[in-house]
Amino acid sequence: MYAQASSRPQSVADPEYRPSRDYLGDTRQVSQYAQPRRSQSRLRGAPEDSLPPPPQQYDYPSGPEPPSPDGDDFYAGSQANSVRAPSPTSAPAPILDHSHLRPGKQAALLSHERTLELYRTNAKKTQDPDLQFEFAVFMIDASKTLPIPVMTAGNVMEVEKAIEKREELIREATSLLKRNADRGHMPSQYFLADCYANGIGTHKNRQDFDRAYPLFVLAAKHGHPDASYRAGTCCENGWGCRRESSKALQFYRKAAAALHPGAMYRLGIAELNGELGQSKSPKEGVKWLKRSAEHATAEFPHALHELALLHERGIDNVLFVDFEYAAELLAQAAELGYAPSAYRLGECYEYGKMGCPQDPALSIHYYNIAAQQNHRDACFALTAWYLVGSPGVLPQSDTEAFLWARKAAEGGLVKAMYAVGYFLEVGIGTETNLSEAIKWYKRASDMGDKRATQRLRSSAPVERAPGGPGAVLHRDGSDAGSGKGPKDKDKDCVIM
């Protein structure tokens, strides 16, 4: 009845993942191979048809911080006088020894090995579980960014040593996390569970929910919102436990009480669609979606998008139609980087939908936001724009049109596969290549594209000028600078 966003719990398997500052405190990375970056977490390896309706997993990204003005960031060098003398009234000297650091213009990152050994030495000086947790997280992150040489006939041993080194880092990290988890350290319980759920530190790097689920439950009992949400997804899908909708609801409600946007969104969708043993209640569902939208994050913008769709069509006696507000909600989600919302706005500004003016610049802007995240329909929309261009906004480029079409086709968009086949057959934006064109036609035909089947049934695709029968585009020589608007674009550039 209502749209549901596919989702995956957050993943430390993703190379862009960084744990939140809530778990790490004010940790600063010390390695050139393990700098903090913005997260785009996704659970990998979970079958698509078994993913729960909730969106991407909850995660608060922590971006890189500027160097501390008091010189406490990690730098290379060995100047003994680079550390301030402690104030007579200050607290005792910290456990971590930064005397080797050199601030200022002479600053340089430590080597990977030196950084790791330094961190290990400092972590062994204390029994503080928080510091040990930081070190374990650092090792997991370092294992994902550790460079592995491309294997050739002459460096097999070197590659094997690099892989063994990475596995050793993971073993050391998971062992430290397990020790802390057994002692009741909540962040370690959750992080270790997340590792198991994503095949880190497991047999053959396979997901192990049998070990992850109990740890999610333990961390949830200690009040960890993400763990409550993840335990709910496990109970809903039978990952590491029996499918129990009632138990999943308990975990979702516990996370929602802590204002977890993903849990609130899931409860809203359950109320709207009558899932998880709930009776349909659009009014309650909208309430949950509004609460989730108020706390939307880059990982959970889905409630904004869903509310926009609901305001676009309305719900009798619950939600009125409001195109202007729907567009505003889509814009908020797009600002958080949500590709479906950005693509929808691109359509609105291209065709003048939902009260939006026809604006090529804004249309291309929002399509580009979605396309940068591999949204295949947005990629193909850019193909259409590049075929005709937009004066003062986007230069006409057959080459760019072909590249975006190929990206959409590689993402599985059938009509893009046909378009790529035609571009290769005719030579639009690329050199003519009949054999490659036939391959793309076959892929499109196998997925039900009748035009591709028709071209394959002919004796052989024949090169023809743009604008012939069955052509992907129709345009004259004046397109590049004709100043045509979106309506002319659709007339002269037909991509079906």
From TrEMBL:
Basic and acidic residues bias: where?
A: 15-25, 485-496
* Pfam families listed in its UniProt record: Sel1
Q: Where is the composition biased (Polar residues)?
A: 1-10, 28-38, 78-90
Annotated InterPro entries = Chitin_Synth_Reg, Sel1-like, TPR-like_helical_dom_sf
Alphabetized UniProt keyword annotations: Repeat
* Entry keyword Repeat: yes
* Coiled-coil features, chain-numbered ranges: none
Outline the segment boundaries, as ranges, of region: Disordered. Answer: 1-99, 452-496
Official protein name in the record: HCP-like protein
Q: Please report the organism this UniProt entry assigns to the protein.
A: Phlebiopsis gigantea (strain 11061_1 CR5-6)
